UniProtKB/TrEMBL annotation:
Stretches that traverse the bilayer: none
Function (record text): Catalyzes the complex heterocyclic radical-mediated conversion of 6-carboxy-5,6,7,8-tetrahydropterin (CPH4) to 7-carboxy-7-deazaguanine (CDG), a step common to the biosynthetic pathways of all 7-deazapurine-containing compounds.
Cofactor(s) this protein requires: S-adenosyl-L-methionine; Mg(2+); [4Fe-4S] cluster
Protein known as: 7-carboxy-7-deazaguanine synthase
Record-level GO BP terms: tRNA queuosine(34) biosynthetic process
Keyword Cytoplasm assigned: no
Domain Radical SAM core, chain residue ranges per copy: 32-222
UniProt-annotated binding residues for Mg(2+): 54
Catalyzed chemical reaction(s): 6-carboxy-5,6,7,8-tetrahydropterin + H(+) = 7-carboxy-7-carbaguanine + NH4(+)
Gene: queE
Binding site for S-adenosyl-L-methionine: 51-53, 86
Binding positions for substrate per the UniProt entry: 26-28, 41, 84
Amino acid sequence: MNAAVPSEIIQSPLPRLKITEIFLSLQGEADTAGWPTVFVRLTGCPLRCQYCDTAYAFHGGEWWDIDDIVKHVLDQGVRHVCVTGGEPLAQKRCLVLLRRLCDAGLDVSLETSGALDVAEVDPRVSRVVDIKTPGSAEEHRNRWENLPLLTARDQIKFVLCSRADYEWAREIVRERGLDRVCTVWFSPSKSEVTPRELADWIVADRLPVRFQMQLHKLLWNDEPGR
């Protein structure tokens, strides 16, 4: 019989995540828009929204130790960090990364599709949760159980592809009182709804939501890493 390996020399592998890219840019959306922000884009997504602008993150990527991710983020010298995808929560160790980034004293946000459970996300993180409209082709993936978990620290986002999408989202906001839970954002899907159309609809209905355009796209179009 082989002798047991002494416990002091057993080394567990460091927790890792598959990463598509890490880059410094301006935050283009939500309540930290305009701040210099480090984006950590995790690889992989179980959804296929018809308007997706980050399909390059569905596959590929490189494995990073979480220690190295945190160090790389800190080396950028800014306090805001956004963990995004793909769908970052599709990798279970994303929860570890979020906690470690918070422990490092950073202002952390998570961009998630709303299709996966957000209950275990560190409460120090601002959860930016999508609600998928019929026009996204992924409405059936909405995890409605997430909504009662949200607090004033979190945010909800609708990307609207048509007037029908707008009316659907308007009724969701009203019926569920989402504006009384946290900030609700309405965004136009590029080339499907014009910004002016959406702005006029919101004003006409006196809807208690915030209009937003993607600042980074106005500056750099769809250039990856910007």
